[in-house]
Write a structure and sequence with these properties.
2 domains; alpha+beta; single chain; Immunoglobulin-like
């Protein structure tokens, strides 16, 4: 290619790439602004909930409001603030106190179903989620498999990872994540095919 042809080619690429880049950046900024606006609205609603009169029927919505503030407020809202709020509620007549342990949650293993070849490996993840959508810490999570071998590999951001290694046996097997202290468990199914 001659120098002129290169220049024309680069100009054509620039004409195409500049609008695409501007569109991508604009979309990213718009999405970020929308997320910030939603978070601000949620903080505003949570603050209104917490300033309303306290009674036993508003206990769960108040707990939700404290979790929203803890997650989305620019001002830190630590767990100690939640405990202070719980202590204030406990001192009010006719209001049942709550604790962080009262929040219901469940365990989820992913993927739920998988098909692999014998002697292959695959990763699973287990996460405990509260009724409010927050991840919960589980300190005693264990993994078991009805066939093959599963080994806990790491934990990051309250997600527990494990690596399953299929044996030579083929068929259907179950991988289970379990927490004895929380009385939680969830399973996934692995179908192992011959090579």
């Amino acid at each position: 290619m001659t120098r002129t042809e290169w220049r024309e080619w680069l100009q054509t690429v620039g004409i195409v790439l500049i609008p695409v880049t501007v569109a991508i950046m604009g979309n990213t900024v718009a999405r970020s602004n929308a997320t910030r606006e939603v978070n601000a609205k949620m903080v505003e609603i949570a603050a209104q909930v917490l300033t309303s009169p306290v009674n036993d029927s508003t206990r769960s919505i108040r707990l939700w409001a404290t979790k929203v503030l803890q997650r989305h407020s620019d001002v830190p809202f630590p767990v100690s603030a939640f405990e202070s709020y719980r202590l204030i509620l406990a001192q009010l007549p006719g209001v049942t106190p709550i604790s962080i342990e009262d929040i219901p949650y469940h365990l989820m293993v992913s993927p739920k179903k998988a098909t692999i070849l014998s002697a292959q490996q695959m990763d699973f993840v287990a996460v405990s989620v509260t009724a409010f959508g927050d991840t919960a810490l589980i300190s005693d999570l264990t993994w078991t498999a009805s066939g093959g071998r599963i080994t806990a590999s790491s934990m990051s951001r309250r997600r527990h990872y494990a690596r399953f290694k299929a044996g030579t046996a083929t068929g259907d097997f179950i991988v289970t994540a379990r927490s004895a202290s929380k009385r939680l468990a969830d399973s996934a199914f692995v179908h192992i095919q011959p090579r």
